[in-house]
Amino acid sequence: xxxxxPDEDEIAVALGRLPFGSMPAPAEFSNCSDITFxxxxxxxxxxxxxxxxxxSPLKKEIPPPKRLANNIKFGPAFKADVQLPNDFKGGTxxxxxxxxxxxxxxxxxxxxxxxxxxxxxxxxxxxxxxxxGQDEPIPRAEMASMRKLKAEAYLTEIMDLLGWEINTRAxxxxxxxxxxxxxxxxxxxxxxxxxAPYKELSKLIGRLNHVAFIIPSARHFMNRLRKLERxxxxxxxxxxxxxxxxxxxxxxxxxxxANAGISINNIIFRQVTSLNLSDSCEMGIGxxxxxxxxxxxxxxxxxxxxxxxxxxxxxxxSSINQKIQLAFDSSPFPCSEDITDNTSACAWMxxxxxxxxxxxxxxxxxxxxxxxxxxxxxxxxxxxxxGAANDIADSLSRDFHLTDxxxxxxxxxxxxxxxxxxxxxxxxxxxxxxxxxxxLARLTTKKRELKWARTKSTLAHGIIGWSGSTTSKPDLTxxxxxxxxxxxxxxxxxxxxxxxxxxxxxxxxxxxGRQQKRPLFMWLRPSQQVVGR
Length: 533
Description:
Blueprint: H1 25-44, E1 90-95, E2 98-103, H2 110-127, H3 146-151, E3 158-161, E4 164-167, E5 172-174, H4 177-192, E6 195-197, H5 198-211, H6 223-235, E7 237-239, H7 242-260, E8 262-263, E9 274-280, E10 284-289, E11 294-299, H8 302-305, H9 310-326, E12 335-340, H10 343-350, H11 360-375, E13 379-384, H12 391-398, H13 404-414, E14 425-427, H14 431-443, H15 458-461, E15 475-476, H16 490-496, E16 510-511
């Protein structure tokens, strides 16, 4: 500033170097390295560059490509949820000072393979002033690290990158042997400790969190360890409980699994193989699979109704539906997309960090979800869906006055969003799952007051002629009765159902009342404009 009077003790410091120990260094260095990697990627994809005619000055320092034996089989790679151009055959990128290049090593792509071998060192040569060797006025090393160049900067099918061993032939990512040995030893020492200091707990949790990047479901087993860390941070030491020791024993298995290798299919964004929709109400839960056509529903007993809040009921429903639908998924690496209209349950299905004492129900649901994914070698995405579009799951969770056949007939006749293309089938929950629900209810010490009444779903609310008796003959009428719905929705009632001159009804379903021909566009009216939405 113009009016600033400098103090005689003030000095100005110019940061000529960026040591990694300083806070701004990595971000500032990344600004430079990103330019280098972008240039390297352009060089790699430049057909006009012939490395045999214009090689990188450091070409002789780069070891030759290291290929595996031809008899080693390739691991399966299933369709990703990312679309790449058909002519994409390779690329390069990096993070701060670590660069990685990937290229298709086919016979017709060998020119790109040669460019991939030298593109990063050539980019450094073009970006910075060349080293003059003995005539250099200010002695300095090459911009490329010669130590890393000779040890790591060559094309290979197995490489270490950012603390992981990537095997492109087996299509796996694994924890390197040295890290596996050291981290396993630390867990074993922690198991025999009576109390653990904060520094050791913090260090261990950081390492286990690193493993959770390739075993995402293992995150659900960090809760008790994180609670110990918070206790140790406050008091210096934390007593290791018996339950925490069990988790540490489980983490030994996770470390072994990570060292053996995790399929990249379970890490990347995949095209889903199992689309599952779930919902709940105070009285029950109900879900189905869009691919499988398998639906199920469960009406809570009174003790279970008052044991769970609505978010927990949604979480239970999503977890159970994932388990059931994965049983019908034939993919060797299933990818489950679990859709719910509850944002809390949606987040918990992906990642949880519940206090085992204050949230024992949530904690157990999270652990059961993780076990399901690991048992099926599956990955999972969770997604929120507005309740107005979740009609089928909503009906399954509420309409216990209708039989299974009546529900299926209702779905086929009204054709709500996300109706499976194949014939739906509603199954009964296995006893092991209903027993698990009952065990969750026993974990709740503070019961809620039972002050809600049974309500019908939107679909059932708009249909009359359905009997609650399981022995009565199901009659369906496409006529909405205005007295059954709020007055403000009456204007939309007639437009909700689709009428055609010829209506194909399931066997045993009779049509009553006068058939009417309605414009098809009326059926396309958004469902949130109809009964109760």
